[in-house]
Structure formats: structure tokens, C-alpha cells
Amino acid sequence: NKKAFVELLFWKSPAIVCEMTKGYSSLQEGEGTTRSRVPPWSPQEEQELRELYWKYKEVEGGDIIAAILAHLPMPGRTRRQVVKQLVRM
């Protein structure tokens, strides 16, 4: 690749470096960064998250995020995803 020197000027993730060395479009489905695999929050999920937050925010001595995760109807959300979504909202 004659223009690879231009790409070297910018920060790369390991997945991008692998793609550069093996050829573009060499990554298989499911490989690469996890950002692309995180499902977006639907409006219904955001509303449920908002309701659970208001319900459990007044509980003293308890972990609000743990209580929200225990009562979320949609499985598969991580603690980090819930915290990021609450901050974003």
C-alpha cells in the first residue's frame, strides 16, 4: 500500500493495524471493537431506565446501579452501559 505512510500518522487500534497488514475488509463478522456490537438504547428502554432510577435513587445504603440492573427487563446490559446511559440522559 503506497499510502500506508499517511495512515501511520494517526493512532490505530489493534484491529485497524491487523486490517492494514492483512488487507482491508479482512476482519470477520464479530471481530474488532466492541463499540459496534453494543445495541443502542430504544426509547422504551430509556423510559424504563429513567423510572427505575427515580424509584431507587432514594434508597439509602444501597447500590443504585445494582438495583437497576436487577430490575431491568432487557437482559445483557452491563453496569458500565447503564451508568453511561444515565449520565448521557
Low-confidence stretches: none
Biggest β-sheet: count, sense, barrel? none
Fraction of helical residues? 40-55%
| Rg, alpha carbons | 20 Å
N-to-C order of helices and strands: HHHHH
Mean pLDDT equals 78
Protein name: TIM protein
Pfam families: HTH_TIMELESS
GO cellular component, one term: replication fork protection complex
GO molecular function: DNA binding
Secondary structure: elements and pairs:
Layout: H1 4-7, H2 14-22, H3 43-56, H4 64-71, H5 79-88
Helix pairs in contact: 3-4
GO molecular function: DNA binding
Organism: Prunella fulvescens (Brown accentor)
GO biological process, one term: DNA replication checkpoint signaling
Short description:
One of its GO terms (molecular function) is DNA binding. The chain is mainly α and 89 residues long.
Give a structural overview:
By secondary structure, the protein is an all-alpha fold. It has a domain at 40-88. Helix content is 51%, strand content 0%. It has helices at residues 4-7, 14-22, 43-56, 64-71, 79-88. Helix 3 packs across helix 4. The mean pLDDT is 78. InterPro entries: Timeless. This is TIM protein. GO terms for molecular function: DNA binding.
Descriptive labels:
DNA binding; single chain; TIM protein; Timeless; 89 residues
